[in-house]
Specification:
alpha/beta, 30% helix
Length: 348
């Protein structure tokens, strides 16, 4: 057995990303889209990466998948190890394709991600032919079974139809079927319920949960919908301006928020609980310019608790629980400002 295969079997963590940084050269300058991202995920778990548009969520996973166009993009630092084996810049691990086989991905808009000139069945069958060497007939039969697994009625008939003949919810199911065709270890779901009504959204989320239980795959969920996060995630990484500013369990993030940005997101979130209803408070201001990121905390200009040090130096990761940290100067032992709304855990 090769050394790579041994590493794949023995590594305790499914995926570990360390200090990942991605830049893009544009006519206006260099955009520092991702600035030192770290996270891990275990088999069978769901990690949600949340944050507003432009914070670097999608770029982070696209860099891992080898989907960043180079140029203008480039990975300037970091590593991504799948069961201990580096995947950045690689196409295969021990002869097995990474993209599509080890890591599957559901894109935001299935209508623009699917080929309008091919039937749905042929598009689902294609990864099986490429990565598994199946004949077209065997791959197409497997595609029908995957459509059935994705709970599309009359799967044999639907497999011979084209994308324009599907509804939005059915297209998303077909995209999920394609992503799990090769039984990947990790499924990346990039805004999987965008533009779907709430009923179909719930069905898609239930489907992802069911597939995770059946296959044991890990899910990286990229979203800005905190309702989806509360329903799906085991752990949450909160991103802002290309950095993860808070990380913890889903209960930590929602009930023990330790970063002012997460407090702002919660204040802007509607609720059905009469005892918690309040006027929604949008976060004032705009995200920083990533052509020239601030020398200190990226949230400083919008933070109601900002101190002088916040604008001049990056805060460290301050742990307020065993696996719960916040990148905020308020948690420094010498900080005298301790807002009641923030959770300080063992820092008190």
């Amino acid at each position: 057995m090769s050394q790579v295969a041994v590493n794949l079997q023995k590594s305790p963590t499914l995926l570990e990303v360390k200090n990942l940084a991605v830049e893009f050269d544009t006519y206006g300058g260099t955009v520092q889209a991702v600035r030192g991202v770290n996270f891990t995920i275990e088999q069978g778990k769901t990690l949600a990466i949340v944050g507003e548009s432009g914070c670097g969520k999608s770029v982070t996973v696209q860099a891992m998948m080898g989907l960043i166009p180079m140029p203008p993009g480039r990975i300037t630092s970091g590593s991504a190890r799948l069961r201990g084996v580096e995947v950045l810049g690689r196409n295969t691990i021990d002869g097995r394709e990474i993209r599509g086989a080890e890591i599957g991905m559901i894109f935001q808009d299935p209508m623009t991600s699917l080929n309008p000139t091919m039937t749905i069945g042929d598009q689902i069958a294609e990864p099986l032919q490429v990565h598994r060497g199946y004949s077209h007939r065997r791959a197409f039969d497997e595609a029908i079974q995957l459509l059935e697994l994705s709970k599309i009625p009359e799967a044999a008939k639907r497999a011979r139809q084209y994308p324009f003949e599907y509804s939005g919810g059915m297209l998303q199911r077909a995209m999920i079927a394609m992503a799990i065709a090769c039984k990947p270890s990790i499924l990346i779901a990039d805004e999987p319920t965008t533009a779907l009504d709430v009923t179909i959204q719930a069905q898609i989320l239930d489907l992802l949960n069911d597939l995770q239980k059946e296959t044991g795959m890990a899910i990286i969920l990229i979203t800005h919908d905190l309702g989806v996060v509360a329903r799906m995630a085991d752990e949450v990484a909160v991103m802002y301006a290309g950095k993860i500013v808070e990380h913890g369990s889903v209960d930590d993030i929602f009930y023990r928020s330790a970063h002012p940005y997460m407090l702002g997101l919660r204040a802007a979130m509607p609720t059905n609980d009469p005892s918690l209803q309040h006027e929604l408070q949008p976060i004032a201001g705009s995200p920083p310019d990533l052509f020239s990121p601030p020398p200190g905390c990226g949230y400083c200009a919008r933070c109601p608790y900002a101190m002088q040090v916040c604008g001049s130096a990056h805060p460290e990761d301050y742990f307020v629980g065993e696996t719960h940290f916040s990148r905020c100067w308020l948690h420094h032992p010498d900080s005298t400002l301790k807002p009641d709304e923030l959770y300080f855990g063992n820092m008190d």
